[in-house]
From TrEMBL:
Keywords: Cell membrane, Membrane, Transmembrane, Transmembrane helix. It comes from Ambrosia artemisiifolia (Common ragweed). Belongs to the Casparian strip membrane proteins (CASP) family. Its main location: membrane. The chain crosses the membrane at residues 60-80, 100-129, 141-165, 191-213. This is CASP-like protein. Residues 53-200 form the Casparian strip membrane protein domain. Residues 19-46 are annotated as: Disordered. It is a multi-pass membrane protein.
């Protein structure tokens, strides 16, 4: 009567389970009376599972943000081109991203990272639906680290060229390119900023994946 009354008050279903104790090997002695325990249905999941599911939701949102950042950086860099309005009979003053191998590497690096992040979305969803799965989270951690290394190297190399374009190098008589190409430099600078934003997001993703694996 107490079990049914407490079950009605809490809203859960109480199922009595009896445990049968084995007698001793010698056959002597009386088995203790069966003990009754209660298993409640509809219990909440353990706190660790809920925490990992929350990490998975944040992971998915950050991946979408990183896809946007890398895609914008690659698109802006790939469409950067400027022709100066004055030219001579033999020369035309033009600046394009493919004139600089570093900018070409920047475009390829961000495009590869963007494609990887798109392909990683199903694995991120699996980590939300089944937060106890270790394999998917481990794969994300490994490839996120590789994508981070690629993106930060491409962004850093492009940032060095952008610095030279803005300031030049008087020691080697390199003029500041941005003094003439006032549309080219802001676009490549914005692309580099977007790539560094993706680097920051990837750092957070790596930290979240490592923290989730420690809690499993």
């Amino acid at each position: 009567m107490d079990l049914s009354r407490s079950g009605k008050e809490s809203g859960d279903i109480a199922i009595p389970v009896r445990e049968v104790a084995k007698s001793s090997k010698s056959g002597k002695g009386i088995a203790p009376p069966p003990a009754a325990s209660t298993i409640r249905l509809g219990q909440q999941p353990p706190p660790a599972a809920g925490w990992r599911r929350g990490v998975g939701i944040i992971d998915l949102i950050l991946r979408i943000c990183a896809i946007t950042a890398t895609l914008a950086a690659a698109a802006v860099m790939g469409t950067t081109d400027q022709n100066l309005p004055f030219f001579t009979q033999f020369f035309q003053f033009q600046a394009s991203y493919d004139d600089f191998p570093t900018f070409t590497f920047f475009l390829a690096g961000n495009a590869i990272t963007c494609a990887y992040l798109v392909l990683s979305l199903p694995f991120s969803i699996v980590c939300i639906v089944r937060p106890h799965v270790i394999g998917a989270r481990m794969l994300l951690l490994i490839f996120d680290t590789l994508a981070l290394a690629l993106t930060i190297s491409a962004a850093s190399a492009a940032a060095a060229i952008v610095y030279l374009a803005h300031n030049g190098n008087p020691g080697t008589n390199w003029p500041a390119l941005c003094q003439q190409f006032n549309e080219f430099c802001p676009r490549v600078s914005g692309a580099v900023v977007g790539s560094f934003l993706a680097v920051l997001i990837l750092v957070v993703l790596v930290i979240l994946s490592a923290a989730a694996l420690r809690r499993i």
